[in-house]
Write a structure and sequence with these properties.
130 residues, alpha+beta, 2 domains, three-stranded antiparallel beta sheet, 4 helices, 16% strand, rod-shaped
Length: 130
């Protein structure tokens, strides 16, 4: 959490608040008076500390991988052959859902798949192909 008062661009006489809060950045033009900008910055810091400012909107809940995969299989049942769908369903239930149950579907699947493969693959000392 941080609030900075800066003149942007330098020498222009226009003051901005730069707010860094929970990994998000915001910039707000305040005006031509530095004293007023510093007063507003103190007030914004006070409100951020108490959580009253409301800069960050509540993020929508994302489904876990297991829920997402179940929804995909339900929708894909009409477009896949029955045997293919059955294979996909079995693989998701047996192998993926138990390992990926905690992961939100928006998380990097590449990173998660590397972690999953490293726990499941035998340790041969070689990198997997592909």
């Amino acid at each position: 959490m941080g609030v900075k008062v800066r003149e942007e661009p330098r020498g222009s006489g226009v003051w901005f608040l730069f707010i860094n809060h929970k990994g998000k950045r915001f910039a707000k033009k305040v005006g031509a008076d530095k004293r007023v900008a510093n007063q507003i910055a103190k007030e914004v810091e006070r409100q951020l500390a108490t959580g009253d400012l409301g800069l960050l909107k509540d993020e929508p809940t994302t489904p876990t991988f297991a829920i997402y995969a179940a929804g995909y299989l339900k929708k894909a049942a009409h477009t896949l052959k029955y045997s293919t769908w059955k294979d996909y369903d079995g693989n998701v239930r047996k192998h993926l859902s138990s390992a990926w149950v905690r992961f939100p579907s928006t998380r990097s699947l590449v990173r998660g798949s590397r972690i999953w493969c490293s726990t499941c693959a035998p340790s041969t000392g070689r990198r997997p192909r592909g």
